[in-house]
Every structure is written in C-alpha cells, then in structure tokens.
Amino acid sequence: MMHSAPAPVENHPRAVFGPFAQTFLPSGTPDDIVSELMAIGHLVSAKRCARAFLDPAVDQMVYLSRGATKLVATASEGREQIVAFHFAGDLISVPASAQHAYSLHALVDSQLLTFPTRQFVDCAERSPAVLRQVLDRVLVALHRSRDKAVGLGRKNAEERLASFFVAMAQRIGRPEGKGLVLDLPMSRRDIADALGLTIETVSRQLGRLRELGLIETSGRSGVRLLQPSALEARAAHFQLTA
C-alpha cells in the first residue's frame, strides 16, 4: 500500500493552512502561535483505500482539509473495527500506532494536516480562544462516541442503520426538496463493520427502509432520505430525563 511522505506546512501555507486557521485560529490569535503551528504542521496526502502516513511514535492531531477517512482499530489476528468516520473540517485524535493499534485510512483521495499532539496542545493552551475551538471539537467527538456505544450496546439492526443515516445527514446531508441526499464515501462493508453488523444484515435493513418509503438508494453510494423525521423516530434516540 502506497503512502506519501509528510511535507512541511510551510511549503503550502495558503492552500493547506488557510482552512485550518479559519476554523481554529480566531481573529487576533498571536502571531507566534500561528507561526509555531505552521512550523510543527505537516501535509499528508492519502489516496483512496490507502493508509495515511503518520509518525508511528507520536500521538497526532489531524485536521482533515479534504476528503473522508475512517479510523480503524486492529485487534489480535488482524481483526479490524472501524471506530469512526471523518469528513472535511474534522479534527481527529490518532494515538501513536507504535503504542496503540489505530490507523487512519482514506475513503477517497484525502489531504490532511498533522500536528504532534503534545506540541499542538501546548500552542492551544497559550490562547483561550484557540483552546475553546479545540475543546468544542473534542466534545463533539466524545458525544458521537457515546452515541455509538449506546447504539452498539442497546439498539437493534434497524435502529443502528437509521441512527447512522441520521448522523450522516447531520454531517454531510444535502437538502433536496423535502428530503436529504447523502453521497456516502464508505462501502456497505464499512458501514456494516462500523455498526457491528454483517453486510447481509445491512442489505436487508436497507431493503426494509426502502419498503417503508423512508429512503431511496442509487448505485453504491447514493442515499436519499425521503422522510428524515420518520427515520429519526426509527433511530430510537434516548430521551434525556431530569
């Protein structure tokens, strides 16, 4: 599997660092913080289905500037579990692969901006505004992880798939008429793995949701949510109580 070696961000300041700065570096961020982040950041490009080349000895914070990826955990005997999917604009924490069996794989051609976690956090701590932006993203990722844990532990196959579509609609859904359109970059096998289901079960549940008039599918990646509210009801989200 081919990897591309990381390139210093300073070689691509506007094209790569610009979108990251617009998201995480509010107006007025001290110049020394901006300069230091540019100095420690590296550009990584990963082709579709390839593993992103990250320093295996260092925890990384990864900003996905373009494309889509999956974070994969590898257990004994090469067994893999998809932990999360990520899209452009996401900030991803990737543990050092030399210590933890995690790796980041591109679902489509992708471009990433990587920072050593310790140095990244040191920079963020020097600016409350920057730290707040980072913390907000970390909390969003934590909430998604908790939702997934609940789904894997307490939801049936239909509820898991409905929850997946609702979550994808919130992240990459495109309004069209009264519904939403999803162009999913992951395969059905990836979806099945992420939801703890077999690919056959995912196919059956897709058929059931089509029969109920909740979705339409086209090709391998196109999904139209015809009744988003009804689909959300099928997701069986837990209600908060006092």
Look at the structure and name the CATH superfamily of the largest domain: Jelly Rolls
Query: What is the count of DSSP helices, taking H or I runs of 4+ residues?
Result: 8
SSE ordering: EHHEEEEEEEHHHEEHHEEH
Give the tally of β-strands: 12
CATH architecture of the largest domain: Sandwich
In spatial order, strands of the major sheet run 1-2-8-3-6
What's the overall average pLDDT, rounded? 88
Share in β-strands: 25-35%
Structural class: alpha+beta
Can you tell me the overall shape? globular
At CATH level 3, the topology of the largest domain is Jelly Rolls
Topology (elements, then pairings):
Layout: E1 7-8, H1 13-24, H2 31-40, E2 42-46, E3 60-66, E4 68-74, E5 80-87, E6 91-94, E7 102-106, E8 110-116, H3 117-125, H4 128-154, H5 157-172, E9 174-176, E10 179-183, H6 188-195, H7 199-211, E11 215-218, E12 222-225, H8 228-234
Antiparallel strand pairs: 1-2, 2-8, 3-6, 3-8, 4-5, 4-7, 9-10, 10-12, 11-12
Helix pairs in contact: 2-3, 5-7, 5-8, 6-7
Structure keywords:
242 residues, alpha+beta, Jelly Rolls, Arc Repressor Mutant, subunit A, four-stranded antiparallel β-sheet, 12 strands, 42% helix, globular
